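Protocol step 4 of 5: obtain the predicted structure for the target chain.
Materials: sequence only (see below). No template structures provided, no constraints applied. The aim of this step is simply to have a reference model before the mutagenesis design in step 5. Sequence pasted as it appears in the construct record:
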Amino acid sequence: MLCQFSFKNYSSYRDETTFDFQAASIPEFSDSVLRQEGCSDLLPVGVLYGPNGGGKTNLLRALSCLISLVVRPIHELEKNRNPLIVQQSADCTPFLFDETSSHEPTEFRIYFREKGNEYQYYLSIFEGEIIAESLSRRKIGAKKPARLFDRDENGVVLGPSLRAKGLNKSVNAKMPYLSFLAINYDLDYIRDAQDWFEACIILNYANPVAESQIILSMDDAFEKNFIRLLNDMDIDISGYRFDDSDKNIYLQRVLNDRSYELPFSKESAGTQKLFAALPVVLIALREGRLLVIDELDAKLHPKLLRHVISLFKNPEINKHGAQLLFTSQDISTMKNTVFRRDEIWFAALGDDHASEIYSLYDIRREDDERVNSTAAFDKQYLEGRYGADPYLQNMLDVEAWK
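Step 4 output (structure tokens):
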């Protein structure tokens, strides 16, 4: 499970930026949080709102960049442990709107939980080469973390648990040492960290080949759940098949006791997106994975979007700690009946063209009190009270167009 992700000097983000999945001490949706004895509660869902160009997608790309830096060399050498990796790479581009950032490294820091341990991983990269790197772990309930390794310009220093294993400390400057260890050794804590990175799902709807592979890899029970969920969302199909001759997927329907097929490419955009998204939603829920999707609401009816969100917030369905992180422009879903205040985040550009993010829970009203949990979040957002939409109010102002 993802606890916290921080990064610095990436794309539109210049300063250190932190996205937090740790739950605040607030009463709303208290039964939906992910609880584990001996550590803080985590959120099952996080959504990022904001204007176009504000930095929503770049935050997801920063996370994708870190994950792909670790997973790509492992996968390319066919040393991955997870048979189904659904991820996309992202370029590591620094902030370019000042005179110094382009000559400084990009930094990532991530906290996650896996198999009874909380891991902290740090990576600093400049022009494709690793400048610094470290990995530590803390057993859930313990007070102090244990350092597994540190890496800087002087080389790699191993922690006590790895020091006696005779590990090679010479690694290519372009490869993370975490990846190097995962490729060459079978080490418990490294293996667990590798499992977490490989399990992250970063969905790209522009990759139909990957989508076909996911759909066709499902077993019979999984396929039945998939079709039932589609039917629940008013996508009335009875099945589907893949044609080897033309490499197309055909969706099947039964009308008046007769079976009909329609090529996937002829289906509506909304049906295509649901058909692509729901398999990874089910995989994430079944295996407790992190699912990252940019513009999940695009081409989806708001009711369908709410249904997907509700799957992750329902402890009877989300039994393995799956998490959903997505961006959205759908203001109609920004309601206190859908989200907790700490699940809603905003991205916006400052006067210096640098992006920043903040959660709804962190916003203070004029009386220095937090936004009330019963407030009309969508209405107040459109009124400009949350500061992440500098132009929408002007667009809604009829007088400005006269």
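Step 4 remarks: The first strand starts at residue 2 and ends at 8. The domain at 2-200+289-395 is CATH 3.40.50 (Rossmann fold).
Proceed to step 5.
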